[in-house]
Protein backbone atom coordinates (compact mmCIF):
# COMPACT_ATOMS: atom_id res chain seq x y z
CA UNK A 1 0.00 0.00 0.00
CA UNK A 2 1.36 3.42 -0.90
CA UNK A 3 2.40 5.59 2.04
CA UNK A 4 0.55 8.54 0.55
CA UNK A 5 -2.70 6.59 -0.03
CA UNK A 6 -5.67 7.96 1.85
CA UNK A 7 -8.06 5.72 3.75
CA UNK A 8 -11.38 4.51 2.39
CA UNK A 9 -13.53 6.80 4.62
CA UNK A 10 -11.76 9.82 3.15
CA UNK A 11 -12.47 8.65 -0.39
CA UNK A 12 -16.11 7.98 0.48
CA UNK A 13 -16.38 11.45 2.04
CA UNK A 14 -14.78 13.06 -1.01
CA UNK A 15 -17.18 11.23 -3.32
CA UNK A 16 -20.18 12.33 -1.24
CA UNK A 17 -19.00 15.95 -1.26
CA UNK A 18 -18.44 15.90 -5.03
CA UNK A 19 -21.88 14.41 -5.70
CA UNK A 20 -23.51 16.93 -3.36
CA UNK A 21 -21.71 19.86 -4.98
CA UNK A 22 -22.48 18.81 -8.54
CA UNK A 23 -26.12 18.10 -7.73
CA UNK A 24 -26.93 21.31 -5.84
CA UNK A 25 -24.78 23.96 -7.49
CA UNK A 26 -26.48 26.83 -9.28
CA UNK A 27 -23.48 27.42 -11.58
CA UNK A 28 -22.32 24.27 -13.39
CA UNK A 29 -19.25 25.98 -14.84
CA UNK A 30 -17.85 26.47 -11.34
CA UNK A 31 -17.60 22.71 -10.84
CA UNK A 32 -14.05 23.24 -12.09
CA UNK A 33 -13.25 24.25 -8.49
CA UNK A 34 -14.30 20.83 -7.23
CA UNK A 35 -12.38 19.21 -10.09
CA UNK A 36 -9.28 21.16 -9.07
CA UNK A 37 -9.67 19.94 -5.49
CA UNK A 38 -10.04 16.35 -6.74
CA UNK A 39 -6.90 16.71 -8.87
CA UNK A 40 -5.03 18.03 -5.82
CA UNK A 41 -6.03 14.91 -3.89
CA UNK A 42 -4.76 12.69 -6.69
CA UNK A 43 -1.49 14.62 -6.79
CA UNK A 44 -1.13 14.17 -3.03
CA UNK A 45 -1.58 10.42 -3.50
CA UNK A 46 0.88 10.48 -6.43
CA UNK A 47 -1.64 9.08 -8.90
CA UNK A 48 0.25 10.63 -11.81
CA UNK A 49 -1.15 8.44 -14.56
CA UNK A 50 -4.73 9.04 -13.44
CA UNK A 51 -4.08 12.77 -13.25
CA UNK A 52 -2.62 12.82 -16.76
CA UNK A 53 -5.45 10.79 -18.32
CA UNK A 54 -8.31 12.70 -16.74
CA UNK A 55 -6.44 16.00 -17.06
CA UNK A 56 -6.16 15.69 -20.84
CA UNK A 57 -9.82 14.71 -21.11
CA UNK A 58 -10.89 17.59 -18.87
CA UNK A 59 -8.87 20.14 -20.82
CA UNK A 60 -10.43 18.87 -24.05
CA UNK A 61 -13.91 19.33 -22.56
CA UNK A 62 -13.04 22.84 -21.37
CA UNK A 63 -11.73 23.74 -24.83
CA UNK A 64 -14.90 22.44 -26.49
CA UNK A 65 -17.06 24.43 -24.09
CA UNK A 66 -15.06 27.57 -24.86
CA UNK A 67 -15.46 27.06 -28.61
CA UNK A 68 -19.18 26.35 -28.24
CA UNK A 69 -19.80 29.38 -26.03
CA UNK A 70 -17.69 32.03 -27.74
CA UNK A 71 -17.19 30.78 -31.31
CA UNK A 72 -20.49 29.03 -32.05
CA UNK A 73 -19.00 25.57 -32.53
CA UNK A 74 -21.57 22.98 -33.60
CA UNK A 75 -20.70 19.29 -33.48
CA UNK A 76 -22.35 16.62 -35.61
CA UNK A 77 -21.45 13.37 -33.89
CA UNK A 78 -21.32 14.58 -30.28
CA UNK A 79 -23.97 16.78 -28.69
CA UNK A 80 -23.06 19.95 -26.79
CA UNK A 81 -25.23 18.66 -23.95
CA UNK A 82 -22.88 15.72 -23.37
CA UNK A 83 -19.86 18.01 -23.34
CA UNK A 84 -21.40 20.07 -20.55
CA UNK A 85 -22.56 16.93 -18.72
CA UNK A 86 -19.10 15.33 -18.70
CA UNK A 87 -17.52 18.65 -17.71
CA UNK A 88 -19.98 19.01 -14.84
CA UNK A 89 -19.54 15.42 -13.61
CA UNK A 90 -15.74 15.36 -13.83
CA UNK A 91 -15.22 15.91 -10.04
CA UNK A 92 -17.45 12.89 -9.36
CA UNK A 93 -15.60 10.80 -11.96
CA UNK A 94 -12.25 11.63 -10.38
CA UNK A 95 -13.04 10.79 -6.76
CA UNK A 96 -15.33 7.87 -7.65
CA UNK A 97 -12.64 6.28 -9.83
CA UNK A 98 -10.18 6.72 -6.98
CA UNK A 99 -12.63 4.87 -4.71
CA UNK A 100 -13.42 2.12 -7.23
CA UNK A 101 -9.73 1.37 -7.89
CA UNK A 102 -9.00 0.99 -4.17
CA UNK A 103 -7.69 -2.53 -3.41
CA UNK A 104 -10.56 -4.85 -2.40
CA UNK A 105 -8.88 -5.71 0.90
CA UNK A 106 -8.97 -2.09 2.04
CA UNK A 107 -12.59 -1.68 0.97
CA UNK A 108 -13.77 -4.82 2.80
CA UNK A 109 -11.78 -3.89 5.93
CA UNK A 110 -13.32 -0.41 6.06
CA UNK A 111 -16.86 -1.72 5.47
CA UNK A 112 -16.45 -4.48 8.07
CA UNK A 113 -15.28 -1.90 10.60
CA UNK A 114 -18.64 -0.10 10.39
CA UNK A 115 -20.51 -3.46 10.64
CA UNK A 116 -21.75 -3.55 7.06
CA UNK A 117 -23.61 -6.82 6.29
CA UNK A 118 -21.48 -9.40 4.51
CA UNK A 119 -23.76 -9.68 1.42
CA UNK A 120 -23.48 -5.90 0.94
CA UNK A 121 -19.68 -6.02 1.20
CA UNK A 122 -19.40 -8.86 -1.31
CA UNK A 123 -21.83 -7.16 -3.69
CA UNK A 124 -19.94 -3.86 -3.62
CA UNK A 125 -16.60 -5.58 -4.14
CA UNK A 126 -17.93 -7.44 -7.16
CA UNK A 127 -19.40 -4.24 -8.62
CA UNK A 128 -16.23 -2.21 -8.02
CA UNK A 129 -13.94 -4.84 -9.55
CA UNK A 130 -16.17 -5.67 -12.51
CA UNK A 131 -14.86 -3.08 -14.97
CA UNK A 132 -11.11 -3.55 -14.27
CA UNK A 133 -11.57 -7.33 -14.51
CA UNK A 134 -13.51 -7.12 -17.78
CA UNK A 135 -10.88 -4.76 -19.18
CA UNK A 136 -8.13 -7.28 -18.44
CA UNK A 137 -10.17 -10.13 -19.91
CA UNK A 138 -10.93 -8.20 -23.10
CA UNK A 139 -7.25 -7.37 -23.46
CA UNK A 140 -6.38 -11.06 -23.20
CA UNK A 141 -9.04 -12.06 -25.74
CA UNK A 142 -7.86 -9.37 -28.14
CA UNK A 143 -4.27 -10.56 -27.87
CA UNK A 144 -5.37 -14.15 -28.44
CA UNK A 145 -7.33 -13.16 -31.55
CA UNK A 146 -4.39 -11.12 -32.78
CA UNK A 147 -2.08 -14.11 -32.44
CA UNK A 148 -4.49 -16.12 -34.59
CA UNK A 149 -4.78 -13.28 -37.13
CA UNK A 150 -8.50 -12.83 -36.53
CA UNK A 151 -8.47 -9.05 -35.99
CA UNK A 152 -7.53 -7.93 -39.49
CA UNK A 153 -9.79 -5.35 -41.18
CA UNK A 154 -10.62 -7.75 -44.01
CA UNK A 155 -11.60 -10.51 -41.56
CA UNK A 156 -13.82 -8.16 -39.53
CA UNK A 157 -15.55 -6.69 -42.61
CA UNK A 158 -16.12 -10.04 -44.31
CA UNK A 159 -17.26 -11.95 -41.21
CA UNK A 160 -18.57 -9.49 -38.57
CA UNK A 161 -20.89 -12.05 -36.95
CA UNK A 162 -18.09 -14.61 -36.66
CA UNK A 163 -15.79 -11.95 -35.17
CA UNK A 164 -18.40 -11.11 -32.52
CA UNK A 165 -18.68 -14.81 -31.74
CA UNK A 166 -14.92 -15.05 -31.27
CA UNK A 167 -15.21 -12.31 -28.60
CA UNK A 168 -18.48 -13.20 -26.87
CA UNK A 169 -17.96 -16.94 -26.39
CA UNK A 170 -14.60 -16.66 -24.54
CA UNK A 171 -15.96 -13.70 -22.55
CA UNK A 172 -19.02 -15.63 -21.38
CA UNK A 173 -16.89 -18.64 -20.44
CA UNK A 174 -14.50 -16.42 -18.48
CA UNK A 175 -17.43 -14.79 -16.67
CA UNK A 176 -18.64 -18.21 -15.53
CA UNK A 177 -15.15 -19.21 -14.42
CA UNK A 178 -14.61 -15.95 -12.53
CA UNK A 179 -17.99 -16.34 -10.78
CA UNK A 180 -17.01 -19.83 -9.60
CA UNK A 181 -13.60 -18.58 -8.46
CA UNK A 182 -15.19 -15.73 -6.50
CA UNK A 183 -17.57 -18.11 -4.75
CA UNK A 184 -14.79 -20.51 -3.78
CA UNK A 185 -12.56 -17.64 -2.65
CA UNK A 186 -15.31 -16.08 -0.50
CA UNK A 187 -16.09 -19.40 1.20
CA UNK A 188 -12.40 -20.21 1.74
CA UNK A 189 -11.88 -16.82 3.41
CA UNK A 190 -14.73 -17.34 5.82
CA UNK A 191 -17.33 -15.04 4.30
CA UNK A 192 -20.12 -17.18 5.75
CA UNK A 193 -18.49 -17.60 9.17
CA UNK A 194 -20.28 -15.83 12.04
CA UNK A 195 -18.54 -13.44 14.40
CA UNK A 196 -16.13 -10.55 13.96
CA UNK A 197 -13.54 -10.97 11.22
CA UNK A 198 -10.13 -9.37 11.19
CA UNK A 199 -8.19 -8.05 8.22
CA UNK A 200 -4.58 -7.53 7.23
CA UNK A 201 -5.61 -4.28 5.54
CA UNK A 202 -7.24 -2.63 8.57
CA UNK A 203 -5.71 0.77 9.34
CA UNK A 204 -6.50 3.70 11.57
CA UNK A 205 -7.20 7.19 10.32
CA UNK A 206 -4.00 9.20 10.17
CA UNK A 207 -3.29 12.92 10.22
CA UNK A 208 -3.45 13.19 6.42
CA UNK A 209 -6.87 11.53 6.42
CA UNK A 210 -8.33 14.03 8.89
CA UNK A 211 -6.65 16.85 6.98
CA UNK A 212 -8.25 15.90 3.66
CA UNK A 213 -11.65 15.32 5.23
CA UNK A 214 -11.43 18.87 6.58
CA UNK A 215 -10.25 20.20 3.22
CA UNK A 216 -13.24 18.68 1.45
CA UNK A 217 -15.66 19.96 4.10
CA UNK A 218 -14.30 23.50 3.85
CA UNK A 219 -14.06 23.24 0.07
CA UNK A 220 -17.71 22.26 -0.40
CA UNK A 221 -18.87 25.07 1.91
CA UNK A 222 -16.82 27.66 0.01
CA UNK A 223 -18.04 26.20 -3.27
CA UNK A 224 -21.67 26.75 -2.29
CA UNK A 225 -20.88 30.26 -1.05
CA UNK A 226 -19.25 31.20 -4.35
CA UNK A 227 -21.53 29.36 -6.76
CA UNK A 228 -24.79 29.35 -4.84
CA UNK A 229 -27.35 26.60 -4.36
CA UNK A 230 -30.29 25.79 -6.60
UniProtKB/TrEMBL annotation:
<dbReference type="InterPro" id="IPR003339">
    <property type="entry name" value="ABC/ECF_trnsptr_transmembrane"/>
</dbReference>
<keyword id="KW-1133">Transmembrane helix</keyword>
<keyword id="KW-0812">Transmembrane</keyword>
<dbReference type="InterPro" id="IPR051611">
    <property type="entry name" value="ECF_transporter_component"/>
</dbReference>
<feature type="transmembrane region" description="Helical">
    <location>
        <begin position="81"/>
        <end position="100"/>
    </location>
</feature>
<dbReference type="GO" id="GO:0005886">
    <property type="term" value="C:plasma membrane"/>
</dbReference>
<protein>
    <submittedName>
        <fullName>Energy-coupling factor transporter transmembrane protein EcfT</fullName>
    </submittedName>
</protein>
<keyword id="KW-0472">Membrane</keyword>
<dbReference type="Pfam" id="PF02361">
    <property type="entry name" value="CbiQ"/>
</dbReference>
<feature type="transmembrane region" description="Helical">
    <location>
        <begin position="120"/>
        <end position="138"/>
    </location>
</feature>
<feature type="transmembrane region" description="Helical">
    <location>
        <begin position="12"/>
        <end position="44"/>
    </location>
</feature>
<keyword id="KW-1003">Cell membrane</keyword>
<feature type="transmembrane region" description="Helical">
    <location>
        <begin position="50"/>
        <end position="69"/>
    </location>
</feature>
<feature type="transmembrane region" description="Helical">
    <location>
        <begin position="210"/>
        <end position="229"/>
    </location>
</feature>
